[in-house]
Known about the structure:
Two copies of one chain form a homodimer.
Chain A: H1 6-33, H2 38-58, H3 69-87, H4 89-93, H5 100-111, H6 127-155, H7 160-163, H8 181-204, H9 208-219, H10 238-251, H11 255-262, H12 267-270, H13 273-295, H14 312-329, H15 344-354, H16 369-387, E1 396-397, E2 400-401, H17 404-430, H18 435-446, H19 467-481, H20 485-490, H21 493-497
Antiparallel strand pairs in A: 1-2
The structure holds potassium ion (2 copies).
One potassium ion binds near residues 223, 448 and 450 of chain A.
Amino acid sequence: MKGLNFKIIASFLGLTSMMNGFFMLLSEPFSWYYHETASTGILSAGLLTISVGFLLWFFNRNAPKDIHKRDGYLIVTLGWLMLTLTGSLPYLMTGTITSFPDAIFETISGYSTTGASILTDIESVPKGVLFWRSATHWIGGMGIIVLTVAILPLLGIGGMQLFVAEAPGPSTDKLHPRITQTAKRLWLIYFSFTFIEFLLLKIAGMTWFDAINHAMATLSTGGFSTKNASVAYWNDNPFVQYIIIGFMFVAGANFVLSYFALKGKVSKIFNDDEFKYYFLLTVFVTISITVLIVWFQDPALQTTIHHPMPYGALESGFRHAAFQVVSVLTTTGFVSADFTMWNYLATALMFSLFFIGGSAGSTSGGVKVVRHVIMIKNSMLELKKQLHPKAIISVRYNGSRVSRVIIFNILSFFVIYMLIFILSTVVLTFLGLDFLSAFSASASCLGNVGPALGSLSPVNNFAHLTDGAKLFCSFLMLIGRLELFTVLIVLTPYFWKSN
Amino acid sequence: MKGLNFKIIASFLGLTSMMNGFFMLLSEPFSWYYHETASTGILSAGLLTISVGFLLWFFNRNAPKDIHKRDGYLIVTLGWLMLTLTGSLPYLMTGTITSFPDAIFETISGYSTTGASILTDIESVPKGVLFWRSATHWIGGMGIIVLTVAILPLLGIGGMQLFVAEAPGPSTDKLHPRITQTAKRLWLIYFSFTFIEFLLLKIAGMTWFDAINHAMATLSTGGFSTKNASVAYWNDNPFVQYIIIGFMFVAGANFVLSYFALKGKVSKIFNDDEFKYYFLLTVFVTISITVLIVWFQDPALQTTIHHPMPYGALESGFRHAAFQVVSVLTTTGFVSADFTMWNYLATALMFSLFFIGGSAGSTSGGVKVVRHVIMIKNSMLELKKQLHPKAIISVRYNGSRVSRVIIFNILSFFVIYMLIFILSTVVLTFLGLDFLSAFSASASCLGNVGPALGSLSPVNNFAHLTDGAKLFCSFLMLIGRLELFTVLIVLTPYFWKSN
Ligand SMILES: [K+]
Ligand SMILES: [K+]
């Protein structure tokens, strides 16, 4: 095994920082426009980040260009850490957040598109910092697209090679420093959807500032809002909420399918196994929860969120059911109602969605629908195999045979996911959380959902956690976002042995 | 595929019923001794069961002797249902339990060695019926031994072929109606341990009736007690509790190891990978919880159980920690203290044990230590493989290479286990449970533990459940006990297609 190419890793970290600093400077005009004193802090953070990035890149720009797998893992893991360290500067240098663990938590929650927050009064945060906060989501979403489409399949992590088999653009079996054509096309779709949602939200009645922030937080399935009440702030404006429901659903679907749809190949969408189940699951759970909250809401459970019903109880029930289901299933985490206050069945249904997640090739987190589809098909097959041990039968996905290696990868992924979930519950109670909050926070952070249950329910936030719990949750958000293996592998002794 | 051999299945069900009726008649002397009116009901139940069994056997005694795999599944599944239907008669015919769902729940809880109860005042139940209740545990334990050692490995379920590779006695690759030599040897050990524990408990101060019942409920890892307070009734008698801790630990270890130990090959025990982890886990969690409850118990959480401290707080803390840890890890479910009242970390630690379970080849339920060992070893290996894709490395267990097929079986088992756990939580909230009780009951019933959390904590019982929830829990206990596949396979369309 060759040694690590530290120079090229450093040059990548430099480029990443420069890009990050550029987005900080984009936040600057918002601060100027609102005459905020925070503008100095944001400008300093941006210039500092760009400078550090430039120096890192400049002194390593002549690095040998050969990148091996191990360099790839380090680039991804260290890249996210570099984003986090520099990305926390706008919070710290404007005084918006003064504690270091708090800043780390909020920053990783942003980039990982989790959207859990330690801020208790979001509306008092300077607009420039709020824009930066939404920008971390949007950058994170870009990072996930390149990771999922260009890097994870090459590394063969958790069966990801399967789901992007049809991805457009050049396919290569070498890890290549150039961001592939595929990623660029998907970024264009990501950008266009964000822009269209922004326009629609503005037309529906949001301010342009709220519209741009919510559009960025939707397409990245992030979930940071500019309002303390999240999207419940617009409970008197159903159009705003239906627009967000629609774009959350799109953000939770495979971007490769959106690419085909835009090319006119709409049939590709409905022939896609994962999309079919994603769609049916959304419809089924939405209808179930509509019925539950319209006719069976537990009167003992009172919500603190105001719910005007401009079009009656049925529309309101359907809208809030659809909003929460799509928000949690796509792991966006926007809130229009407190689902923990409906009834126990609704809570259990919503919590089970924490473990599903959106589609592969989207910006959503969690286990992903396709992995569940394959796991369930494989389970049925295992039962069949008990009866016909010699029959040659295999799991089929989108019309093709799925290899045993990929199924093995997927099963291993889920097993590790659940073991980390159970172990993290124990760790979080050790770090001071009560049991219900601990195990739901563990599932929520690992799946990059955002809200949890108990003291971390949709109307609460993560401010009351101990510093240790905040840092551990940050770690969970990071490994969840990077599909576990990318980070875990760097933490094994094997990784460092040959250096 | 050949048709099912219904005649031989019926003759097995007949033999099972006769054996069951024989144990009912064994309960009869206890009722006579205490001059109970229940004696008529028990006698009638016993005679009825024996008669039904005799008729079933008599008219099918000349059945063709060839048994195929599919017959095997049906014999196991229907055998347990037959036990349940006849086994509920002593409750119903003595009037101890009057509702049919209640009787089914208590009976399946007995045979599955779960030990969850719908009885609210155990001490008012006639002694003959109490003995019968403990006998269902003991019969269930016998069933599990034959299932694990003689049947599951042949059916290749969940990697069970691996753990009994060293089992003594003739090994055959054909499903054979004769109960193997192996099972007989292990039954002898099971019986001897029960008898020794009975003697020790009597010496330590239990009445002979309590001693025999607790011995049967210990070796089967069942957990039914004759006292409302369970083993907390003997909180002033540490010897009784240490004896039970010791035998619970033995009951949760592989009986094949006990066989070798009795043959003088003690080194086999400490060379066994599963035993090592089982032992270390017990010690580690016991010490952690001792520290927690002696020095960090949350004063806000008050327990209703009386805790005299005859040898001081440290001994008492250690004893209750060890008791609860061994009781939950081995899925026995006896109670000397309410672990949900210690603190949140202790609750989380104890709850995570729900998913581990004892050793394969024991009477304990749950996922089993060995599956976790293999899953964790495989996860480490998957990480290693990412770095060395071409290296030929494989999971090793007890010094040998574990085949990919077995690992695949184990991963599939765990995935199905967790999916059923999550789905059952939703179903149980639908059937009226609150969220915390639902998801803990789901884990407890599936793992055959007994106590759960919330309204089903160790000081509560399952009486308040709706009939639907009781029947669903019964189903969970049954499929958990039969290692999922045995029952699930009978529920697939594949199973019935060729008939
Ligand atoms: K999110
Ligand atoms: K039990």
